[in-house]
Fold:
Amino acid sequence: MKLSLEQAGLDNTGTRPVTAQLQQMIDTLAAAGGGTLTIPPGIWLTGTLVLPSHFTLHLEAGACLRASPNVADYPADLTQSMAELSHMALLYARNQQQITLSGEGRVEGNAAAWFAPQADAQGYRQPAAQRPRLLVLEGCEQVRLCDITLADSPMWTAHLVSCKHIFIHRLTIDNDLALSNTDALDLDSCQFVHISDSYFSAADDGICLKTTRKAPALQQPTRHVVVNNCIIRSKSCAIKVGTETAADISHIVVSNCTIFESNRGIGLVSRDGGVFSQMSFSNILFDCRHGHPCHWGKADPVYLSARRRDPQVAAGQIQHITFSNLSGISEGAINLHSETAGDIHDVTFNGVQLQQVQGDAQEQGCFDVRPPCNPAKPSGMGLDNAYLVNPETGRAWGVEPYPGGLPALYADGVTGLVLRELNAVRPTPLPAGWHSQDVVIVNGK
Structure:
């Protein structure tokens, strides 16, 4: 069955919400066993839409499904998963099958409506505590996101939770680079995922694999994820595993990707007990530059970190990780940091071409192990550990200078580290505050 808004006679100027009419058409398709709802050119203002099984939302070129700026248009307790303090979503499904978003149109989040107009002293535009993610799918199977654009999200853009058999192809996610915590794609306890030929640009993480704490029915490992031929820009971390790691993450393959204008390239950040293993990153080009100090990271092309978030919960180990054929420019260093020696082990770098350049950031030469670091809330999340400044150093908690200066690669507490063909091109003469050695290894072997 196919339905279209073209003959519905609804407002297509984005002036008045058409939520009820859209949901009625979706429900009609669901009652018929599924089908396609086509969105023609125009701006269609809407609140939450709940999607059924066997359903395709197809947005034609020139079509824009725009999120309402009115918080009352979003049920406050809709999702099982939580992002910051919010359970809201624009597009939502739970325990459904065969859901497709397709077409050359756009889903827009109206982000500016949910943030303060001016940045604070830390460079952060304060968001509304309650604001929607653009797409949340929980416990769904056979999900397809193809050709469509998701843009201007006020929160995590696409949050897929405990979903299986996900196919993402030629997806574009393009968010405002001034608005934090607007991750592009979050795969949370998802399995059997293929992502290809897509573009991600966000102020927060680009592609993020995680296992958040959630209801037992939804808790499962993240595994069997393939990412290839993607272009990613992030003011936080372009390709990230963690930091929320309540369950294991394994069997991850990332290849043939370009990372540009990013604060951190590849980050594996273990905090909550889940084990990272069997991951391969190959044929990656990177350009890593310092972002604003409020963003985690210091222009690290690669960052591996195993630290406790909760003092009572040991960090999960990071093991059997391979990096091959990485090449690019960075203002920072490859940084491997294990709070407990040996929690990061059996890591191989096979072919790295790193050109280190001098930038103008005041914190060049520092490393960053956030989160968690704030001693007032040692097990806190997000804002508790992101932006608070240590009065003794004038830097955020967790940001410290590299001992002896900035190297090309720094490893602390790592065992079984293998370096093959690491070629670092550094300024001559070395700037003040740079380490005389390319590679610095401490507390490991």
Notes: The domain at 1-115+129-213+224-234 is CATH 2.160.20.10 (Pectate Lyase C-like). DSSP finds one helix and 35 strands in the chain. The CA atoms of residues 264 and 300 lie 5 Å apart. The longest helix spans residues 19-31.
